[in-house]
Structures are given as structure tokens and as C-alpha cells.
Write a structure and sequence with these properties.
This protein has 246 residues and is an alpha+beta fold. It has 4 helices and 16 strands. The strands form 3 sheets. Strands 1, 4, 5, 6, 7, 8 and 9 form a 7-stranded antiparallel sheet that branches. Strand 8 and strand 9 (114-117) form a beta hairpin. It starts with a helix and ends with a strand.
Length: 246
Amino acid sequence: MKQKILLRGVFITFVLFLVTGFAQFVSASSNVIENYLPQLKGVWYDLSGNPGLSFSTDSLNGYKIIDINRGDGHGEHISVRLIVNGEYKDYNLKLINFSSKQGNYHQYIAANNKIFRRTKMPQFNESVGGLGIGMSQKDVLQRYGRPEKEFEGSDTAAPYWWYQKLAMYLYWYRGMVYKIAIYRWGDRHFDKTGLNCLNSPADFANAYRMDTVPQGGNGNGPYAIGNNEYLEFNEYPFGIFLTMSF
């Protein structure tokens, strides 16, 4: 009972763009609901590891689900219609790497300025100096402290932190690390393989069992390394990016 009250409180706090009434909602077929709910089922956690969203077979945070609409036509964005205090409310969600397999890495739900993940703690395949995709700003600060430069982001560029002495950039999506860049004049490397910008593309292909040898420059890649993670060589041999699929 205590957890249910907590979940409802979190839910109400996060829902900033709820729409009352039927006018703007295009009803989905029962097939859409049947396809989505089993895959969404379970507890999704915020970046602090607290329960934030809880889907059952017919409810979200204890509120009855009436319908689900695919906002963009292919399922990345959905709108969930609920009954809240006797009224219809629409809750808009962005699904990232959506899958029914809870063991798959980097499954997230974005809602307004918040992001929720399948697991309490971040799961990642590769890392740089102990930092992996899915970590929060608090996680990073505990390990590295504040960077030399912080960029808040713009309409065309993601927020990032620049650790100049380490030659490492961290890029943020709603308070979560989604991309890590290392450059050849720093001492950072990828933890699993020990590789960095001084290694050849063939070294990366062998270490990560890639189908092809990476090519530098724009328009090539990204190159999959498993568990919804990728390496980008757009700035190679000066820099290499570790990122995830969206």
C-alpha cells in the first residue's frame, strides 16, 4: 500500500502535459493495447533508483488504462489514456529500445523532462573509466567531480560536460549519460578492451567482433558492439564516441 501511494505521488508530479477529454485523442485498436501492455508491464525506475512508473496488465500507477494511441504511427511515441479522479487523462511517453525482454540493455521511457529505466541501477556493456551509458549526473559527480566546462544545450545541440584534463566529453539526455567521447590527447580508454584513439580500426573490429572494419569520417557507422551500444568513428583518429541506439 505504501509503494502504491508513492507511485501515485510520483506519477502526479511528473504528468505536466495531461490533456482532459476526448477531442485530441485518436483511439487505438484493442490490438495496440494487447501489444504494448505485456511489454510495458513491471516497475520502471528513475535515475535515482526509485520506482516511478508501474504498469500492470490494465493500469499505470494504479490508474485504469482505457486506451493506448501510437502518436507517431510506428510506436516510438505513445499516449496512454487513464481514468484519474473520474476524468480521462492522456499521458505522453517516448519509448526507447522498447522490448518485452527485460534483460535487454538501455530500455527507457521518457516522460516530459524525466527518464525511467527497467532497472534500479544502470546496465551497460562498455564503459570509460567506470562511466557507462545510463548513469545519472549524480553518479558521474561521485566518481569525477565537476567538469571544467558545462554546456546547457540548445535547440540543435545536446547538453554536455567537458573534462578537459581527461579529454573526455559526456553528453546528456534528460539528465542521463547517452554518449561518451574520448580523444587521443587524454588517458581515457574503453574498459572492456583497453582500446583508445591510438588503436587502429582493425583492432576495434577484432576486439568487438564487428562485421566490418570501421571507417573514419562522417557518413560511416555507427558500429554495433552489443547490447544496444555503438561506437562512432566520425572524428577518428582524434576522437571516438561510445553511444546507444535511440
